[in-house]
Amino acid sequence: MPGDNAYDTYDRLISLLDTSSVDYQLIDHAPEGTTDDVSALRGHPASEAAKCIVLRVKVDRRTTRNVLAVVPGDRRVDLDAIRALYAARYVGFSDAETAERLARAIPGTVLPFSFDPELEVVADPDVVAQPRLYFNAARLDRSLCLSGGDYERLAKPRVEPIAGPLPE
C-alpha cells in the first residue's frame, strides 16, 4: 500500500538529511498536496517550491525510462525539453500506480529525491539555485525546507533546463 510506504520514505529522507549534516527545517501544516495551496500554508512563493512529476520516457521501442522531473512550483515540466534531452520518441506522465511505486509516495507528496534505481532525477537549474527550497516530505501534513545547493549535493540530480511557463 503506498500510504504505508510514505512513512518509510519520510524516515529514509530524514535519515539521509541527518547523516549528511545539512541544515533543514520541518514544517507541519494542514494536509495539502497542491503546490500553490501548500506554498500558501508554508508562507512562501510557489517559485521556491519543488514540483515533482514522474514521467515515462520511451527512448525507442524497447527502452522506457522513468524520470522524476523537478521544476519550480510556479512552472510546468516542459515535455519537449525532456524529449530532446533523452532523444526520445515519447514523453508523458506516468500512471498513478507506477508513479507511487517508484516515488514511494502518493501524489502531492513526491520528493525531489529518488530512492529507487529505476527513477532518474532531473532538476531544472532554477531549483538547485534556490536559497530555500520547499517540498512535501512524503507526507501531506509535513514539509521540508533546505537550500537548493544542499538538495543538489544530496539528491545528485541531472541538472538541465526542463521548466516551461505555466499555461495562461
Total domains = 1
Please state the overall shape, judged from the principal axes of the Cα atoms. Answer: globular
Helix percentage: 25-40%
Poorly predicted regions are: none
Helix run count: 6
CATH superfamily: YbaK/aminoacyl-tRNA synthetase-associated domain
By CATH, the topology is YbaK protein
- N-to-C span: 37 Å
Explain what the structure shows.
The N and C termini lie far apart (37 Å). This protein has helices spanning 2-19, 35-42, 79-86, 96-103, 125-128, 148-155; strands at residues 25-28, 50-58, 64-72, 75-77, 90-93, 119-123, 133-136, 142-146, 158-159, 163-165. The radius of gyration is 15 Å and the shape is globular. The protein has 168 residues and is α+β, with helices and mostly antiparallel strands. The protein has a single domain, classed as YbaK/aminoacyl-tRNA synthetase-associated domain (YbaK protein, Alpha-Beta Complex), CATH 3.90.960. The strands form three sheets. It has a five-stranded mixed sheet. It has a three-stranded antiparallel sheet with strand order 1-8-7. It contains six helices and ten strands, in the order αβαβββαβαβαββαββ.
Quick structural overview:
This protein is of the alpha+beta class and about 170 residues long. The protein has one domain: YbaK/aminoacyl-tRNA synthetase-associated domain (YbaK protein), CATH 3.90.960.10.
